[in-house]
Amino acid sequence: MKCADVFRLSMAHPGDLSELETLIAAGTIRAADVTAIIGKTEGNGGVNDFTRGYFTQTLMGLLSKHLNKPSEQLIREIPCVLSGGTEGVMSPHFSVFCVRDSKEEGRSPASALAIGTAFSDPVPAENVGRRDHVEAVANAVRAAVAAAGIERPDDVHFVQVKCPCVTVARAAAAIAAGKAPLTNDPNKSMAYARAAGAFGVALGLGEIGPEDFNDGSLLSDFSIQSPRASISSGVEVESHGVIVFGNSPNWSGQLRLAHRPMADALDIGAVVDVLADLGITAAPQVTALDAARIATVLVKCEPDRRGQIRGNRHTMLDDTDINAQRHVRGAVAGLIAGVIGDGRIFVSGGAEHQGPDGGGLIAIIAASN
Amino acid sequence: MKCADVFRLSMAHPGDLSELETLIAAGTIRAADVTAIIGKTEGNGGVNDFTRGYFTQTLMGLLSKHLNKPSEQLIREIPCVLSGGTEGVMSPHFSVFCVRDSKEEGRSPASALAIGTAFSDPVPAENVGRRDHVEAVANAVRAAVAAAGIERPDDVHFVQVKCPCVTVARAAAAIAAGKAPLTNDPNKSMAYARAAGAFGVALGLGEIGPEDFNDGSLLSDFSIQSPRASISSGVEVESHGVIVFGNSPNWSGQLRLAHRPMADALDIGAVVDVLADLGITAAPQVTALDAARIATVLVKCEPDRRGQIRGNRHTMLDDTDINAQRHVRGAVAGLIAGVIGDGRIFVSGGAEHQGPDGGGLIAIIAASN
Amino acid sequence: MKCADVFRLSMAHPGDLSELETLIAAGTIRAADVTAIIGKTEGNGGVNDFTRGYFTQTLMGLLSKHLNKPSEQLIREIPCVLSGGTEGVMSPHFSVFCVRDSKEEGRSPASALAIGTAFSDPVPAENVGRRDHVEAVANAVRAAVAAAGIERPDDVHFVQVKCPCVTVARAAAAIAAGKAPLTNDPNKSMAYARAAGAFGVALGLGEIGPEDFNDGSLLSDFSIQSPRASISSGVEVESHGVIVFGNSPNWSGQLRLAHRPMADALDIGAVVDVLADLGITAAPQVTALDAARIATVLVKCEPDRRGQIRGNRHTMLDDTDINAQRHVRGAVAGLIAGVIGDGRIFVSGGAEHQGPDGGGLIAIIAASN
Amino acid sequence: MKCADVFRLSMAHPGDLSELETLIAAGTIRAADVTAIIGKTEGNGGVNDFTRGYFTQTLMGLLSKHLNKPSEQLIREIPCVLSGGTEGVMSPHFSVFCVRDSKEEGRSPASALAIGTAFSDPVPAENVGRRDHVEAVANAVRAAVAAAGIERPDDVHFVQVKCPCVTVARAAAAIAAGKAPLTNDPNKSMAYARAAGAFGVALGLGEIGPEDFNDGSLLSDFSIQSPRASISSGVEVESHGVIVFGNSPNWSGQLRLAHRPMADALDIGAVVDVLADLGITAAPQVTALDAARIATVLVKCEPDRRGQIRGNRHTMLDDTDINAQRHVRGAVAGLIAGVIGDGRIFVSGGAEHQGPDGGGLIAIIAASN
């Protein structure tokens, strides 16, 4: 049987991997077991957020040294999904997901955390936000589910995807080559990339079929959504990287995963419910003892595009000074960190088609009692 | 007996007082009863936030028309305390506090909401953030407590003060006149003004004595703090305006007030506790029925100046792109709005000496069942 | 004959009209002569810039007092065009354009500054950025040219238009009424409004004909442009307001107007050339004596949408922290203020179809020697 | 004799050193000749600008590969001075300064560009902005002048220094160790670090003596300034790195250096004058032929701390949305790039004590005709 471990580590700056280095040096983490990384860096989370690239370069250099493989190869083998923006109470951190062979055999009586990863081929700029993009993600999702050895689709609880987007420069290059990118507005491109990624997860998990959408559905038909899809987009990748998380009887260990859709940015009920799914009570805050059982918290959210939350006007979308995604990440992280009692949570903006329109989703990995 | 009413109104932009105009036209509000205003406008909350001045000009123009008094006089009679910055889920709104004679006589068996106001003389730029500033606030607090007819100091639950600050231009004018302002950094000046206001409240309420502090204590000795002081600072006022809120047997009505200190930006317990003080349960969210009883929510908070929250690094203070107060307002408002289920809450940054260091305070006015 | 005067006044904040008040009190300006205002306020220049509304409310209140007309009427008679954003060396200021009867008769041997204004009907949200919008502006331009008594189209040198745009709230209201706004992205809406305004000026001045464009040409066919169109867009207006500036032998006075297209954001040559057109030398800076002859400087500019200036990458469009228009205004104002030696210049972003693609235009009004 | 070469290279993002890699691969640049780097990266230029660290890590990795030395050693041998913030028309780029032995002997009839570098020991957080800091810089300046073999102090034209600053975390660590940092406000700390660096250059070049200042002079007595000092400050370094540039008869080559103080942010005369010193005419813009002779442009500037430029109010210091240094860099770069016709210029904010108060300085390296 295989067993997944999660190490949630802090960093002093986006190039600081010293906590990981220490754990590898101590033998706590075997570099060869590192399967995926999901982290929050302290950039602005937008097109010009280079903290993601800086972290990635540092990580791959560190693993390269321990694994004797070039960074260029590792970057295509180990998904490193970073979301920029630690607004408000969020604390920069990264979760290292490791997979090792356990000594146990047979099947877990209770299922345990299972992880699988996959990569697509590089994505041309003109494909971003179109059906080719959706299908490339769906194929990678299916490959990752298979890699995780998860048998029942319902046992998949969270799929993290990182998609490339189009910068002004990439758009110009594509146009010069006679191609037509969907948009040359970088922030718009990131939104389309996230939407296509969400459709890809829904398609790959069988939540929707190939006839249920067309190019026009993206960022338009918000009835299409996956409550298990978490999509990031950034300039620093050229292929889709996919990490599938589920519970499986074929895996051993104390960790289990649960998820809930969030109806809107005020949905504290979803946070309490997903904790309850894992046997943890928040009344109103998780106790320190229970908080220590929580391995990682993964959240998607968005500023309601209709300009209101429960009938009251919000100002996130009309703000020229602060990007709307930065606004909503700060607010939702404030809510969830208050329930958990810990700012080391992954809250990522841009939840188009990822959970209910105007809301998003939350997934938590925690150890059994 | 007197009776206080609270009307929480929304606005489409900082110059939109149409909801107030409608209520006055309908006779629901008598213009002569308007005693104070506390609101959140959608500016940046900093020195160059002119949404506060825009709202104030519009409000005074409207009341001037109904009361046949010049705006210049009204602005010195009716405190209008605005906090800029509706980050995240906050919704721009303002609470109109009205005081009228009720037909009831004698004393309320349960105390009811009592309100009193006062103004200081204009404050010279060189006094901002110094003992003169502290004492001017303290005197105005005492005058407002007396005006409210609150007899026991413990019955005061919330004191809102608006203090002037020093802009680059005001500092230059003072220096040209041979005076020495404490600082010519506008954001620093706002911080000192808030600190001095908090000391003034503590002094005025008898929480500290005149020997308990000197000029050097401001922004330095954070053991001195008042859990009932809420201070705003802005360029648009020249005097200290004070509004005292308490519960008093001399007042009638259904409204009552409670407050709690907040230990830090994750202190969801304080939010649940202050609701419980008013007989309202949040499990995890206030029901719609109970939410309708809530008249207004008033909060102060701050980015922990030590750079950490519960041992985890936050990035609010090192951010060159987004002002730290905008960060923390968004996070704390996200938490509280999630518990209340409503974004129309007054969350104001800059809680120096207002509640515990790194935290702040919350006060809620609600109607009895 | 008529005569136009220009008063360039400073302000301490967006609600400060004290310099105008002083000039009216002194009799230097007759309130009834005030024909139009063009100014730079210190907001962010975006959808949520309320400094424009604040200034406008203050201005109309002041003129209302002197003219005994309600503000609501004046706002439909006197165009008040404000551009938010005094980035870098720009100084908040406003130019008051007055028209009076002069004692001179006959015709000016040299033409003199001529000004005419006009307003359109209110613009429904669903029309913004479409042919109806273009034609409404064109009609207003023709009316303003006629009002100015300018006979030859070539004598028109600058047309300032202020168009309404669509906020999230306005878009939602239109959709609820069964209408389809072009976009519900406020910044996109402002761009379409400016583009439609520029097409309207070109159509109104006969630079293009009605068959030369369709709805798809806006923000797409950048060969269509007017080197005399300056368009602002904002939430605070509901009709198009047009001010036409030209030189005419039917007007008297010392002031004359010239304009030049700017090829890109580095086109210092255009600045020197337009000064030369008015008999002013910059070598490299205008002398203090000549600077005193300059009545007002009006500029449009934009961040090159292709991501490069003269072959070098710029980062304005990929910046999530600072809006691209704020970037370019600061840079172009730095250039022009350096040549003029004065930060009181009107530099407005969003030059879509206003002058060459990636550049813009400059117009200067100056007195003869 | 030695000869200095300058290569001005563009980058697609802060981790993109491909142009340098290409030139090394082609043999145009010998990795061993690389002596110093000065560049503009596209971060925000503040405490939380990690584009500088990202670039530095990438550069040192590249040189490490070619030189077979560890990055940790190279970073202490090759000054890499980066200024974040390519506001407006600035283009991200870096200048590589190489020193090689030339075949020429004797002395240059005209002096040629000479370069020398030096590093201080690591700087404890509590020393930042104090006399120890000043003296450490002065000693490093003297060492770099000697390394350059420049004999006459007047032949030094530009001294670039990079100083460490204090973050919230570093301040907390120092306080925990019983030390008292000057300030725990990161932006304030960067300002003090730049001031101390400027004093260090003035002291090292003999412009001031050790008795001419004390700790209280920093950021206070602005009559003390060096027109040849350019100081950056950042979290990513722990020692002072110094690069001295001058002209010397002991060096060969076509390059020469000139500098001028800038009186204020509108001082276009200084730009034209420094070009004239190098035999280049700007009328109003440098011709393409002459622009090709320009090797690099180095500028320091600042928002006038008195809130005015030539009597007109600016809004840079009161802006809560955009950092004042970002404002002024954008404006001054707009001016200079317009004269040069090229956005690849190094314009760095924070010119405290570097050139005249409220202004700064400009240095240009260009080839002879």
Report mean pLDDT of chain A, rounded to a whole number. 95
Question: How many β-strand stretches of chain A?
Answer: 15
What structural category do the secondary elements of chain A indicate? alpha/beta
How are the strands ordered across the major sheet of chain A?
Answer: 3-2-4-1-9
Radius of gyration of chain A: 19 Å
Beta-strand percentage range of chain A: 25-35%
- Oligomeric form of this entry? homotetramer
Poorly predicted sequence stretches spanning 5 or more consecutive residues of chain A:
none
Principal-axis shape of chain A equals globular
Number of helices of chain A: 9
Biggest sheet architecture of chain A: 5 strands, mixed
The percent of residues in helical segments of chain A reads 25-40%
H/E element order of chain A: EHEHHEEEHEHHEEEEHHEEEHEE
Give the chain pair forming the largest contact, with residue counts. A-B, 48 and 48 residues
- Report how far apart the termini of chain A are: 21 Å
